[in-house]
Design brief:
Blueprint: E1 2-5, H1 10-20, E2 26-31, E3 37-42, E4 47-51, H2 57-69, E5 73-78, H3 97-106, E6 112-115, H4 120-123, E7 129-132, H5 135-141, E8 148-151, H6 157-167, E9 170-178, E10 184-188, E11 197-205, H7 209-220, E12 225-233, H8 239-245, E13 248-254, E14 262-264, H9 267-277
The chain binds ribose-5-phosphate.
Length: 278
């Protein structure tokens, strides 16, 4: 068995190869002048791990090309499963993107490993998806720190609870309360944040809009310092700059998407699971 590393996950791939003692396959990636992508895998192994987050459309094409190039068995590790937020037909005629992605992957592999896929609904698009939870790692990173963990909405509250339990800190979520027809008030459900250090925890930071709205409100309520942590730092549209402008003191993320903010690695939880299933 060898490990094929996609361009979206180079460092995480290297860590996993070291942890598992598996060699990295030699892969040529190339772009033709017209923009088309090309891959060539120089490997004589007949079973392969592939690691690569699906952050962009290009990542999906590359993975599909790799599936075609590889001989024998394939175990895909997709640390960030993009397209999972389009997990249903919100408007008539829309593609269920994650279902389309699942088809591409499952045509080639029986099992897929990922980390914190966006929703249970997205999970249902796969026949056998192993979805690992990086929230305990976030908890570990902030263990015994003087913080309150806050989920920006009720939907992410269960995830935040897991991180807070490991960190041994208090946690809460921001609740939207309708005051009248024109006014919606957002506030932590149970905890007073005045004078406190608050960590907003979410699965994904994409445009940063969710965290920025929460940050502004937490400062209005008297929070001393607000920082943010997430599993998947998509950070689209200059989100990091916008977060810092909104007063976020620090951004912490895992390396499911490799960014300068990737202070926590999912390499060990992935390696452990790969050992179990292969
Ligand atoms: C929403 O359901 C997710 O948990 C995140 O809160 C959301 O995807 C973040 O997106 P953005 O950074 O664009 O607000």
């Amino acid at each position: 068995m060898d490990l094929v590393i996609c361009p979206s996950s180079p460092l995480l791939g290297k860590k996993i190869s070291e942890s598992l003692g598996i060699k990295i396959a030699n892969v040529q990636y190339k772009r033709f002048p017209d923009g088309e992508l090309y891959v060539r895998v120089e490997s004589n192994e007949n079973s392969h791990l592939i690691i690569g987050s699906l952050v962009s459309a290009e990542d999906v094409i590359l993975m599909d090309l790799l599936f075609d190039a590889l001989k024998g068995e394939v175990l895909p590790i997709i640390p960030y499963m993009g397209y999972a937020r389009q997990d249903r037909e919100f408007l008539h005629g829309e593609a269920v993107s994650i279902r389309a992605i699942a088809k591409i992957i499952e045509e080639r592999a029986d099992i897929v490993i990922t980390v914190n896929i966006h929703s249970n609904k997205a999970k249902e698009s796969f026949k056998k998806l192993i979805d690992l939870d990086a929230m305990p790692l976030i908890g570990e990173h902030f263990r015994e720190k003087e913080i309150i963990m806050v989920s920006p909405d009720k939907g992410s509250a269960e995830r935040v609870k897991v991180a807070a339990k490991v960190a041994n800190c208090d946690w809460d979520w921001l609740e939207k309360k309708r005051i009248d027809a024109q006014t919606v008030e957002i506030a932590p459900k149970n905890i007073d944040v005045e004078g406190k250090n608050v960590l907003i925890v979410d699965d994904i930071i994409s445009t940063g809009g969710t965290v920025i709205e929460a940050t502004k409100r937490l400062y209005e309520l008297g929070a001393k310092k607000v920082e943010s942590a997430c599993v998947h730092a998509v950070l689209a549209e200059f989100a990091a700059v916008k977060l810092f402008s909104a007063g976020i003191a620090e951004i912490t993320a895992t390396d499911t998407i490799e960014k300068i903010f990737s202070k926590i690695s999912v390499a060990e939880i992935l390696s452990q699971k790969i050992r179990e299933v292969s």
